[in-house]
Structure formats: structure tokens, C-alpha cells
Design brief:
This protein has 345 residues and is of the alpha+beta class. It has two domains: 232 residues, Triger factor/SurA peptide-binding fold (Orthogonal Bundle); 90 residues, Chitinase A, domain 3 (Roll), CATH 3.10.50. The chain has 14 helices and eleven strands. Strands 7-6-9-8 form a four-stranded antiparallel β-sheet, sandwiched between helices. Strands 3-2-10 form a three-stranded antiparallel β-sheet. Strands 1-11 form a two-stranded antiparallel sheet. Strand 8 and strand 9 form a beta hairpin. The longest helix is centred in the first third of the chain and has 25 residues.
């Protein structure tokens, strides 16, 4: 299972991974969602990038950058190693990885939202009630709504932003269900009709058309008395003047007009009568059709479809994005959290 499958499902678990909140005290700004903008030196609501025409505010990207940086720092800390942002990682440096990973997550969520809008897949009243219930559950486990809001603020979120991310998770689930249902805007392609295959037994008109016609009549009689007409036809056709064997029938290309008209009348497995044409005398057999090999099992999983769409999304980055340095951001983020009364775990 790819990483995309579980990403929207763990939204509620991501917010509390980097810092703790004191029970009381601390800077009065701790309940405000300003740590991301302070760390990056940009306005959190200003547009930082566009994904397939959707303008995304800076906090959307900075949230994922903070999450990625926190994860990297935690792994290095657990390993007892000094963090080196210039260290090689996945084709670049650790800096490149952090910035790219955060961009992937941001684009993925935007693609989910864009798809939901395009396919008219919205949240229902029951979904919003579940989100409210989840808010209440998270608040209770944190010691109350005020405490939960302070925990979110550590990650640069407030209730509205938390709900935005949570709603995207619900949209993902709905789109996935729609795809798996094989109907609606994600309707999977039906198996394609089997190709029409035709075999031909030919007696050439050269050098004696009359003798060729008599020979064709003999072969036709032999076919009609055969116990296994299909096997007999195959044997006689292989020894005839048409050595091409069974072929895919394409209108206007495979046979001359007299033969083509006959092919169109044949049912699968049916043998024609003797058909005269300029080249001689033919007997045609439409092959038995086999079911199409294409099935819904051959189609990609929804996550693969989503990942491919995210990889191909039209992403426009602003100059402010290009100036973001993950190492400086991570260090500034810790200072902003400290100034707001949060402490690192």
C-alpha cells in the first residue's frame, strides 16, 4: 500500500508530534496561528502556490513543511546523530527532500479537493457531524477545547484550518468509494468487444477459373459433412491459396467488397457459402469470439490514480516559495514556538 493511502486518514494524529503545551503561562500569542508565518517570514494567508488553478495560502504548504522537518529532526534525535541538512537524500540533499516532500503533500491534498469539486463529491450533513464529533473527542483527550487549540497553535493551526484538513480526508474517502463502486464520474471502462477474427479458404482463379469453382464446391461439401467443422476448416484453409491464416477483420481493409459484405453477416463460428471474387472462390469462417482480457482488476488502484494526477498537476510556485529554506525555517520555527510558550518534545 502506497503512502498516499494512509495520508488523509491520519490527519488528526499529525498535529501533536512536535511540541508540548504548558498547562498555564506562556506568551499570550500562543493561541494564535502565527508560528508558521513567523518562521518563514511570510504572511500565512498570502498565496504561495497554485495547483491546477487553485490558489493555496502559505499555511497549507508551511504546515506540511513543519511536519516534515519535525519528523526529520525526531529521527536524527532518536538515532543520536547531529542533523546535517546538506546530507545526501533521495537524489538531492536533506533540504531538497524536506522541501519536495512538503510540496508533494500539499499538492496531493489540493488535487483531492479539485477532484471533489469537479466530480461534485461534497460533504453531507452526516459527515460534518462526524467532524464535529471528532473535534469534541480530540478536545476532551487534550483536556478541553482551550488546551486543544493551544496544541494546534503549536503546529500553526486553528479550528478552521484543522477542519479544512479534516474535510479533505473525508473527501478522499468519498472519492475512493466512488471509484471502487465502478460508477459515476469514476466509472471504470467496460470490457471492450472482442475483435472480429476471420479465416479464409481460398481457391485461386488462376490458371483455370472453372476448375477452381469445381474445387471450391468440393471443399464446401467436405466442410458440410465434417464432424468438427471448425477443425476441418482450419486444416483446409491452411492448405489453401490464402496462407495469411486467421486475421482481425477491419472494414475497408481486410477483404475486397464482396467478401466484406459476407463477413458482416456471419455469426461467431459460422461458415459462409462460396463467395466469388476477382481473385477466385472463397469460403469464410468467423472465428469463435473470446471474452476481452480487460477487466477491472487490470485498472490501477485509486491511490495510484491519485498519485499520478498529483505528479502531473499544473503547479505554479511564487517567488516567496523559492526563497524558503527548510533548515532556516526549522530553526526559526523552534524559536517561534518557544516565544509562544511551546516546548519541544
Amino acid at each position: 500500500m502506497g503512502r498516499w493511502k494512509w495520508a488523509p486518514a491520519v490527519i488528526a494524529c499529525l498535529f501533536l508530534t512536535a511540541c508540548t503545551v504548558p498547562e498555564s503561562g506562556g506568551n499570550e500569542r500562543s493561541a494564535e496561528t502565527t508560528v508558521l508565518g513567523e518562521a518563514a517570514g511570510i504572511g500565512e494567508e498570502e498565496t504561495l502556490l497554485m495547483v491546477d488553478g487553485q490558489a493555496l495560502p502559505a499555511w497549507r504548504y508551511l504546515y506540511w513543511l513543519a511536519f516534515t522537518c519535525d519528523q526529520i529532526e525526531a529521527r536524527y534525535k532518536e538515532a543520536g546523530k547531529a542533523l546535517d541538512w546538506a546530507a545526501p537524500a533521495e537524489g538531492g540533499t536533506l533540504l531538497d527532500y524536506a522541501k519536495g516532500q512538503a510540496l508533494e503533500d500539499t499538492v496531493l491534498y489540493a488535487v483531492i479537493e479539485n477532484w471533489a469539486e469537479s466530480y461534485r463529491c461534497g460533504l453531507e450533513a452526516a459527515d460534518r457531524e462526524e467532524i464535529k464529533a471528532e473535534w469534541a473527542k480530540q478536545s476532551e483527550s487534550s483536556g478541553g477545547e482551550k488546551a486543544f487549540l493551544r496544541e494546534l497553535a503549536c503546529q500553526g493551526l486553528d479550528r478552521a484550518r484543522w477542519e479544512t484538513l479534516e474535510e479533505t480526508g473525508y473527501l478522499y474517502a468519498k472519492l475512493c468509494e466512488l471509484y471502487e463502486a465502478k460508477e459515476g464520474p469514476f466509472q471504470r471502462p467496460a470490457p471492450q468487444p472482442a475483435k472480429v477474427m476471420v479465416d479464409r479458404l481460398l481457391v485461386s482463379a488462376e490458371p483455370d477459373r472453372g476448375a477452381a469453382q469445381e474445387r471450391a464446391a468440393e471443399l464446401f461439401s467436405k466442410l458440410n459433412t465434417a464432424t468438427d467443422q471448425g477443425a476441418e476448416f482450419a486444416a483446409l484453409a491452411a492448405a489453401s491459396d490464402d496462407a495469411a491464416g486467421p486475421r482481425v477483420f477491419t472494414a475497408g481493409e481486410t477483404f475486397s467488397a464482396p467478401l466484406e459484405e459476407v463477413v458482416k453477416t456471419l455469426a461467431p463460428g459460422q461458415v459462409s457459402g462460396i463467395v466469388e471474387s476477382e481473385e477466385g472462390f472463397s469460403i469464410l469462417r468467423r472465428m469463435e469470439e473470446e471474452a476481452s482480457s480487460e477487466s477491472t482488476e487490470d485498472l490501477p488502484e485509486f491511490d495510484v490514480l491519485l498519485q499520478n494526477a498529483a505528479a502531473k498537476a499544473d503547479v505554479t510556485l511564487t517567488p516567496a516559495y523559492e526563497l524558503i529554506d527548510p533548515a532556516q525555517f526549522a530553526a526559526s520555527l523552534q524559536n517561534a514556538r518557544s516565544d509562544s510558550g511551546f516546548s519541544s518534545k
